[in-house]
Design goal:
Order of helices and strands of chain A: EHEEEEEHHHHEEEHEHEHHEEEHHEHEH
Structural class of chain A: alpha/beta
CATH superfamily of chain A: CofD-like domains
Helix content of chain A: 25-40%
CATH topology of chain A: Rossmann fold
Distance between the termini of chain A: 14 Å
Number of domains of chain A: 1
Number of strands of chain A: 16
Largest interface: A-B, 31 and 32 residues
Radius of gyration of chain A: 19 Å
Oligomer: homodimer
Number of helices of chain A: 13
CATH architecture of chain A: 3-Layer(aba) Sandwich
Strand order of the largest sheet of chain A: 7-4-1-11-12-15-16
Amino acid sequence: MNIVALAGGVGGAKLAHGLTLTPIPSPLQGEERRGEGMLTIIVNTGDDFEWHGLHISPDLDTVTYTLAGLANPDTGWGMAGDTFEFLGALQRLGSEAWFHLGDRDLATHLRRTELLRQGKTLTEATAIITRALGIKATILPMTDDRFRTMVETDQGELEFQEYFVHRQWQPIIKRIRFDGAETAQATPQVRNAIAQADAVILCPSNPFVSIDPILANLKPCEEFITFARFGKPIAAVSPIVGGQAIKGPAAKMFLELGVEPSAYAVAQHYAGLVTHFILDQIDRDQENAIQSLGMKTLVTDTIMKSIDDRVKLANSVIEFINEN
Amino acid sequence: MNIVALAGGVGGAKLAHGLTLTPIPSPLQGEERRGEGMLTIIVNTGDDFEWHGLHISPDLDTVTYTLAGLANPDTGWGMAGDTFEFLGALQRLGSEAWFHLGDRDLATHLRRTELLRQGKTLTEATAIITRALGIKATILPMTDDRFRTMVETDQGELEFQEYFVHRQWQPIIKRIRFDGAETAQATPQVRNAIAQADAVILCPSNPFVSIDPILANLKPCEEFITFARFGKPIAAVSPIVGGQAIKGPAAKMFLELGVEPSAYAVAQHYAGLVTHFILDQIDRDQENAIQSLGMKTLVTDTIMKSIDDRVKLANSVIEFINEN
């Protein structure tokens, strides 16, 4: 069973990590293997930006660090135990330093930027970095082309990191726009992964700014159209639990866009695409409503506090897809 | 009295630092002021190189860190107390990491590179960085243009940092070549400093790869030609003491180029240009020979172990120039 997971930041990375540690049924080989070999994670690059000449890919890094066991569990960005000598020195030199950049983390950005300058694609640079960190699952940027999530707010249109990090997602959102969506192409590697996939999982990432950018890039692909037409499973795990986002601005965004945040609202957002929907125990009263959107449902514990939680959720999702 | 000091790395930086802390006679104002306001340090940029997309100026940084009191006294490069988290992480990502780059030091390179990418000259970038670090003396790169010291050795022609850092100056030198010397121009700021100067001091830096590049760039300038023609003082402090270089490959280079390293050999190297020569007590037997090259001489303690030593030597040099 080949699994493609779509992921943005922390929540998506956690489930992706769980999937790498979960036995995925492999009927062809008559055996079960850990998921990493059959798992491809397509990651949002709408958050990417240039900072002091460096190409920064926040979601790629969050997924990479999480899978490599290097992620900082407290912050949701950067590496555990990282130091900030560079950033302090940069500030003393009078430079903008609102983007939190640890000394070890910086090496990833410099290496990526260097590889891109050498003419490598972002996909190739990501493969080099993830392999160097010992990751066996395939992590793919959704595109090698420029694609920028722009947030139209009460304070004007903002680049995503400006909105998210610098202004700490306080501006009120009016609309989200994907700059470059018309020209950015899904990569051959992404298209191939979809062509080989038995199931696609939308991880519990922000629907508007993590999953939608990937889908915007993926939906025009013949491989994805075929995948969906044949009724293959597209599962989504709700990032909204008890009306709240586990992390980040998803619930706030729903409200600002005029929708009460809920698991149901997430399901509605994905209606017509998603076939399998996973919601938390706490939201079980919404199960029937979600089923009425034409989705199969699984009610389970979705909050991932420990690595064990990640594996359990990944296991539940795989079983749910496999048996339905 | 306006002083222009020509400096390369550690030894040059130390004397330049001493000069900033020394009262320089100011006859026009009838008073003495600390040297920093009347001191311009023209720094070798022949060692500059690109590393992982960053513009690195080793000598500019050594002078800057020394004057800012941030230099690492043990290594001769980088900042005191710096950490190396970035470099370790970069190595884990499979990247070349032979150039020792501390986390705080890195901020300087990134800031400089950023300013250059914004269209600033190296002179402007240096002014921004040195001012941010509280330096009042003017530190000028010898040129804003590309100028690269290339070292022809028994292992082939090498870029300077490749020779100096990566191969730890072990290859045998045959010849030194200044790539770009024909086109690189002294900056307006350098030319103006020379036009205003009452004396030029060649700091105790490597004659071949620190001072010669600056001179190669300076000699064609009308301002420098005029300065020399009017017989204004050009003083040199010997970087060779007791036949040895205080630091670095100067003595080894003399030998490989077929000259016994000595204070006299340094004076001979500068013959026809330098009017005042400062040599160490230990080399006092060479005083007459140096005088026979047409130079006035000062024999004094030239080894700078403490900051007090820097000030004392700077003081001696200023007095020597002023009274002769």
